[in-house]
Amino acid sequence: MKNIFSCTIFLLCFSLGCSKSPMVEISLDDPEIDRLYVSKDFMFREYLDTIYRVNDQFLYSPGKVDGDIYFIVSQNIYGNPDKYLAQFLFAEDKDIHIQMLPDKKYELDHAINQTFKSLYENTNSLSHDDDLKDKAIQENQKNAIAAFILYVWKKTGDLEEQKFVEYLKVIDPVVMKETYYGRALREVQDQVQRETYPQNISMSGVDDQKYQLSDFKGKITFIDNWASWCGPCIKEMPNIIELYNRLEKKEEIRFVAISNDESKEAWIRMGKVMNIPFQSLLLSASSRKPYAGYYGISSIPYGILLDESGKILASGIRNSENLEEELGKLGVR
User: Are 115 and 89 in contact (CB under 8 A)?
Assistant: First the structure.
């Protein structure tokens, strides 16, 4: 997955009640780019607005600045994404000018504050440095930066459930209630605390036999969510299989690979290539969205460890090292 922290624009007003609507003026010297896209979702699954070029500039006003983070990208993320990107904090009630440059670089007309300066200088490290993420969360408890960093960390990293819950207590309740990523964190918190299996999720095996998640009841279960088209999934699957094969107590835990493939043929073909030794199931078309929503899956691979009754023990497991660590806590080696 691409480095989320280095490919966004942060638009933030630290005061939840600004007196006027600031204007963002963006200069982009590329005639091929005629519009920019605005969203509060870093995955750009939905847009708030489209900004069109006027002469050689793009002008955007978020209207009521509500303390949220806004993301702006130069092209549709599902088409030819991220040719030009920028990053900034809207920390003052005044207009800002951005000069967008090639190779995902940009210049600001003025430094906003030291918090932003530190984040800007370390954006590439944020995705890989847990200490830096911890510092950013601690220093931004009262604004949406902490909520955003914690959300992405939980959804795309290997943040333990207990540590995640501890961080939730750090972030200001107003941020949790009033901002986009604060509310998103509350949804993730609900997902983490799931204590049973979702209903009406249908899956099938290679032989077309139907299964429900409740069929896993009675045994600790690791679910490896993957798909035949997912490069990182294919890369990591042999490591998961190797861990499974060398477990001495494998009878104490059930391994299940659940695919998000649309094509049954592609799923079966890749399953044979990978030679998956444990149960492999395919989600039905009608179950993909509710299943992902219930467990908070926004990208794969995404492993989930459930206890005998379906309660989540760990989620967001991305590789065999994370899984082995979680199994070790349960005494499964």
Answer: yes
Classify residue 204 as left (phi > 0), alpha (psi -120 to 50) or beta: beta
Q: Mind giving me the DSSP string for 278-290? A: SEEEEE-GGGHHH
> How far is the C-alpha of 264 from the C-alpha of 86, rounded, in Å?
40
* Interval 132-166: pLDDT, tens: 888 889 988 888 888 888 988 887 766 777 888 89
* 29-31-32-38 Cα dihedral, nearest 10 degrees: 60
Count the helix, strand and coil residues of the chain and give each as a percent rounded to the nearest 5: 35, 20, 45
Burial of 23-51, coded b for 16+ CB within 10 Å and e otherwise, reads: ebebebeeeeeeebbbbbebebeeeeeeb
pTM over 0.85: no
Q: Hey, what are 240's tokens?
A: 């998961």
